[in-house]
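Ops channel
N.P.: pipeline sanity check, posting one input/output pair.
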C-alpha cells in the first residue's frame, strides 16, 4: 500500500472528483500553478481542502501525492533514505523527491505538525530555486516543470508551537477555506451521503449550533466532513440523534457536560 501511495505514475485521478466551487479558488490555484508558485490552503479541518486538491489534480492532469504530516515526520521521510535491500544499500526516494522528479502535485497536509527540519527542505522548493536539497546524497534536485507544492494549515489551533513561521508562509500564495455557506453545505451533504435535503438542512443547522460553541468549551465545531459522516449513518438506517452523537458529538469532544449539551442540541432538531 505504501508503494502505491508513493508512486506518482499511479496517482493520477481519473474521474472527476465531486467538488462544489466556493469562490475564486480554482482560478487562483491555476494561475499559481502556471506561474510555478506554491500554494498554502488555510482553514479548519474537514472543510474541503483535500477534496479541492483532488479536484485540481484531476483538472490539471497531474498525479497527486498527499502526505499527512505528524509530529514524527522528518525531512528524511519526505526526501528519502538509504535502505538495505538484499545485502545492498540502495537509495529510496521519499514522496516529496518522487513528486519533484515526476512533476506531481505534492500536498503536505497539516504541515505545522511535522518536525521543524522539514521546513528546511521545503524552503528552496518554495521559492525561485525550485530545488530540493538531498542532503544525504549531497545533491540538489531541480524540480520538474510540472511540479507543484501545496501545503495546508489550520490557523484555528492557536499555539506558538503550531504556528507557521513568516519565513515559510511568505513563500506561498494563500487560499482561505472555510465551511461552505449553508445552502452549499446542504447540497454537499445531500450529494455525498444520499440523504434528503430537509435532513441535510437540519444537519447544517446542528453544525452551526456547534460552531457557535467554538471557544466556549469546544475547540472546533462540527466540520463538513462530520456532517457527511452523520448523513451516511442516517442513510444506512441509524436514527438522526444517534448519528449526531456517534459521528459528530463524540468526534468533537470528550467532555461529558459538553457532550450532553451537544446531544441536547441535536434532540431539539430531530
Ligand atoms: P480537509 O482536507 O479540509 O480536512 P476534506 O477535503 O477531506 O477536508 O473534506 C471533508 C469532506 O467534506 C469531503 O470528503 C467531502 O465529502 C466534503 N466536502 C467539503 N467541502 C466540499 C466541497 N466544496 N465540495 C464537495 N465536497 C466537499
Amino acid at each position: 500500500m505504501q508503494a502505491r501511495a508513493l508512486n506518482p505514475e499511479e496517482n493520477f485521478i481519473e474521474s472527476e472528483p465531486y467538488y462544489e466551487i466556493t469562490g475564486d479558488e480554482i482560478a487562483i490555484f491555476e494561475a499559481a500553478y502556471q506561474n510555478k508558485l506554491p500554494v498554502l490552503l488555510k482553514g479548519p479541518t474537514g472543510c474541503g481542502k483535500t477534496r479541492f486538491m483532488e479536484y485540481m489534480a484531476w483538472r490539471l492532469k497531474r498525479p497527486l501525492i498527499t502526505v499527512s504530516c505528524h509530529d514524527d515526520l522528518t525531512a528524511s521521510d519526505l526526501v528519502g533514505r538509504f535502505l538495505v535491500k538484499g545485502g545492498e544499500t540502495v537509495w529510496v526516494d521519499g514522496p516529496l523527491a518522487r513528486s519533484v522528479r515526476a512533476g506531481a502535485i505534492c500536498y503536505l497536509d497539516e504541515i505545522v505538525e511535522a518536525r521543524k527540519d522539514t521546513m528546511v527542505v521545503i524552503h528552496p522548493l518554495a521559492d525561485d530555486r525550485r530545488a530540493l536539497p538531498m542532503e544525504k546524497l549531497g545533491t540538489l534536485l531541480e524540480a520538474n516543470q510540472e511540479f507543484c507544492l501545496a501545503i495546508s494549515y489550520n490557523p484555528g489551533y492557536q499555539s506558538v508551537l503550531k504556528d507557521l513561521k513568516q519565513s515559510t508562509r511568505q513563500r506561498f500564495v494563500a487560499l482561505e477555506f472555510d465551511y461552505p455557506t449553508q445552502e452549499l453545505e446542504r447540497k454537499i451533504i445531500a450529494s455525498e451521503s444520499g440523504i434528503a435535503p430537509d435532513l441535510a438542512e437540519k444537519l447544517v443547522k446542528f453544525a452551526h449550533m456547534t460552531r457557535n460553541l467554538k471557544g466556549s468549551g469546544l475547540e472546533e465545531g462540527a466540520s463538513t466532513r462530520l456532517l457527511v459522516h452523520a448523513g451516511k449513518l442516517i442513510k444506512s438506517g441509524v436514527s438522526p440523534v444517534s448519528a449526531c452523537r456517534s459521528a459528530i458529538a463524540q468526534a468533537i469532544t470528550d467532555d461529558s457536560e459538553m457532550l450532553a449539551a451537544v446531544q441536547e442540541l441535536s434532540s431539539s432538531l430531530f
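N.P.: looks fine end to end. Residues 18-20, 22, 45-51, 180, 188, 192, 224-225, 228 surround adenosine-5'-diphosphate (CB under 6 Å).
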